[in-house]
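The methods section describes the discrete structure representation at length, but only in general terms. An entry of this sort, consisting of the sequence and the corresponding backbone structure tokens, reads as follows.
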Amino acid sequence: MSNDVLFEVAERIATITLNRPERRNAFTLGMIDDWVGYLEECRERADIHVVLLTGAGKAFCSGGDIDEMMKQGQARSPQERKDELVGHVHRIPLTLDRMDKPVIAVMNGAATGAGLDLALMCDLRYAARSARFAETYVKMALMPGAGGAYVLPRIVGRARALEMLWTGEFIESEEAERIGLINKALPDDELMPYARAMARRLAEGPVHSIRAIKRAVRAGQYSDLATSLDYGAMNYAVLASGADHIEAVDAFLEKRAPDFKDGGS
């Protein structure tokens, strides 16, 4: 692992930081591989309950490094370019899609192109008021290659997504909040404290319930109502017999805050 992606764990919260501020955290193929490795570690470690993703410096992520992934890539064949995406970049959205734990994008600055697409794969997105967002592929005479054409319309709707993708124009954080692209725009100095407070709240919550909710929401996007109801009933029944539920009921009746222990350290 290089220093271009930083990783730390504290209070059951893992923080992944893209660390090329001089390049606005544009990622290389090596960074993508490190990023995937840390996400896989987050999936596997019982002591990690929540994941934060952020960028160093003034930008969140400007997408793929133009020199390495575009200029140098012009010498590669179409099949080689596809293999580059499938073998590296696509591992991020696919790994996130398998992640039951909450993943929060802490967008400290601009997010463009694949940098925005990969943030959209996260469960929650909080952004600094100074941050701006754009789907800039069209300005490079390209189309989304990291999942943006799939996830963006599901978040902001087809018409708004096409407008963003066809124009490549920036939107400010307040507008991004209004259209649901991000959950909340915050003063720059309040962004990380707010995101960490949310992460701690989730990390200290009933872990099996939180992960089951994420699985149910994800499954419900690809199933009919009857199937979704059946899925919910099965998992509800399992949770109802768990230690966290018993503790939550006891705490409610005793008028105290619950102390959840289930789900590991």
The CA atoms of residues 48 and 101 lie 8 Å apart. The first strand starts at residue 5 and ends at 10.
